[in-house]
Every structure is written in structure tokens, then in C-alpha cells.
Amino acid sequence: MVPTLETFHRQFEAEILEVDRALVAYFDRFEWPPSHYGLIRYHFGYADRDLRPRGPGDYLPRGKRLRPLICSLFCRLFRLPTDAAVVVIMATEVMHGASLTHDDIEDHDAVRWGRATIQSAFGLEQAINAGDALIGMVYQLLLSLESAGVEPRRIVDVLAVFNATHLRMCEGQHLDLRYRYSDDLTVAEYLDMVSRKTAAPCVCIADAISILAGATAQTRETLRRFGQNLGILYQICDDIRGIWCAPDALGRQVGQDVNQRRASLPLLYGFKHGSAALRDVLQKGARRADPLSESDLEFIRQELSTCGAGRMCREEAERYYDAALSALTEFGQQSREVDLLRGVLTAAYASVNFVA
Asked: What is the pLDDT of residue 321?
């Protein structure tokens, strides 16, 4: 049986819980105004809708936790000291949280991880402010690496990596907001967008931990390639899931990419190569505020499969899966951590099984 990302999340549940506890302890350092930090805790699942704190056993789930999984495995791979490892994992999680807070605003998303987003629960203005605060926290956390015994020179290098990643993610988000599946876009342009928006944080993890571990330039480049290809693979598979996945497994509205005219890979290909009937349904769906009906979704799925969009997505996913696997092989180290990274990669790739 092919493992899922949820399988790995359960396997690393104790370690991820420790990261969550460390993040809660970090947020608890900020006392005023309590409602501001309550919003931030709510976003991470550490507080309820009334901003009352939740205990460790009651933290709400938030996605596949791919980044902390990779981060934890890279830290273990290089035997990074625990204090430094926890800081990098927290900074990675907070940067991701900031990007999602702003992403929910820009995409008008009311639901994430099966619950109301900050903007839908507490208002647009507070969501913008919460995302801005999280960006500030990323750099505050990284500066605390000095207390973990990291040399100032390496801290500066890690800060530079996170800063470059932040800017690259904004570039990708700009393109994501600008592109529409009805535009005359190439697959190459889509992949460039994805490399900035989704893959950049995975590359950031490889870069930052390589710096802290004092890894060779060759090792750093190999792990960067792994992160780059894993990130692109994950986005392609997420695009697939956004059309073919069951709602309870997706954690957000299925078919939302159609409503928002997002340039997801299957829709981009399908609008260009599919039937006139498919284009008509997609255009009508883009003018609707309410979710697509199941019959419309099923029609879109069938048409995408007929025009070859599903096959093309699977082939692209396989290409990036093979490239990431090749990077791990080139890394040349035999260890449990490498085996687990290979398993995480396979689990991410398993999403293509949603395609008929």
C-alpha cells in the first residue's frame, strides 16, 4: 500500500506536536493586545473561534504539514542541534502561515483546513495585519538562532535565504493572481510561476539547513534540486486534487479553481485543448460565486480526461517525481532519513491516483 502524507504526519505526530508546543510558547511571549495574538493562534489551530486557547491534545489540524516533515528530516540528516532545528522549523511554519493568511485574502477563500479563514471569521483588515505580523515573526525567530549557538555569519546567510525566498514567493503569487486558465499561457510559464510560489519554500529549507550544517556546496545544490522538484510536484498534484479529490479529503471547496479562473495545470491545458462544451462550462463557472454542482464537476472531469489533460498532468508529475528521486540518489547517503524523504516524495506523488 502506497503511504500518504497523512501517514507520515501520524508517524511524526510526536515531533510535530513538539514544534506546535514550541510555537505556542513563542506566541505566548506576546501579551498585548491579546485579541491580536489570539487571531494568530486561531490561524494555526491553537485557539477556537472565540480565541480561547486550546490545549496540546486539542490543536486543530492544518494541512499535510509537508514543510515541517521535510525540515525535520533534513535536520536529522545533518544531526543539527535540537535548539537550532526547532527554530528553523518554527520559522518555516510561520512563513508558510503568513503566506496562507495573505493567500486566503487574495483568493477570497472562506475555508482552509476545514474551518473559517481569518478573513472570513474576523474581517479582511485583521487578516492583512495578522499576515504582516507573522512575516515579522519569521525574522525575529531566525535572529534567535544566536541563542542556539549559531555563528552570526551563518545567521546572516540564513536570513538572506529566507529573505530571497519571501521575495520569490511574492513574485509567484503575483503571477498566480494575474494568470487565468483562459489566458494564452504555456506550461513553461505555469511551471515558472509554481517554482516561485510553491517550490521556493522547499528550496529555502534545503538552503537554510545546509548552511547551518556547514554542508558542501555540492550537497547543498543536490538538496536544493530535491526541494525544487518536490515543490513543483506537490503543486501539480494539488492542482489535480483540486478537481478530482473528494471534498472531505481536500479541506477546501472542490472546483474552486474553476470559480476563481485559476491557472491550474489541468484547467490551463483543458481550456486550450478541450471541447467547446468544456470551455462553456468553465466560463460559466468562472462567473458564479456559488460552488459548482457535482454534475458540473463530473462533466469537467470527464472532459479533462477526454482531451488528455489528466494524462498530461500525470506525465508532468512523474517527470518531477523522477527528478526529485534522482537528486536523492545523487546525494549518495544511505540512512533512515533519506528513506523517509523518499517515502514523503512517493506519498506526494500518489495524489495523481485521483486522476481517472
From this structure: 94
pLDDT at residue number 182 = 81
Q: Within its chain, how far is the Cα of 264 from the centroid?
A: 15
Give me the number of domains the chain comprises. Answer: 1
Note the pLDDT tens digit of each residue in 251-261.
555 567 777 78
Counting every residue written for the chain, the total comes to 356
Q: 240 lies in which domain range?
A: 5-354
The amino acid at residue 326 is S
CA distance 101 to 94: 10
The pLDDT tens digits for 58-75 are 888 887 788 888 888 899
Specify the CATH number for the domain of residue 318: 1.10.600.10
* Cell reading at 290: 456559488
Cell numbers that stand for 54 in this block: 486550546
What are 47's strand-pairing partners? 53
What lies within 8 Å, CB to CB, of 248 at 6+ separation is: none
All three cell numbers of 212: 547551518
Check residue 282 and give its pLDDT.
81
CB-based contact 354:240 (threshold 8 Å): yes
Ordered DSSP codes for 295-342: HHHHHHHHHHHHTTHHHHHHHHHHHHHHHHHHHHHHH---SHHHHHHH
DSSP string, 199-233: IHHHHHHHHHHHHHHT--HHHHHHHHHHHHHHHHH
Q: Is the dihedral of CA 324, 327, 333, 334 positive or negative?
A: positive
Q: Which three-class secondary structure string do you get for 25-37? A: HHHCCCCCCHHHH
Residues of the chain short of pLDDT 50, as ranges, are 250
Residue type, 127: A
Average pLDDT score, the chain: 87
Quote the distance between the C-alpha of residue 279 and its chain's center: 29
Grid cell of 200 as nine digits: 521556493
CA dist 65 and 251 (Å) reads 13
CB 179 within 8 A of CB 193: yes
Task: Please tell me the predicted confidence (pLDDT) of residue 212.
Answer: 95
Q: Are strands 111-112 and 115-116 parallel, antiparallel or unpaired?
A: antiparallel
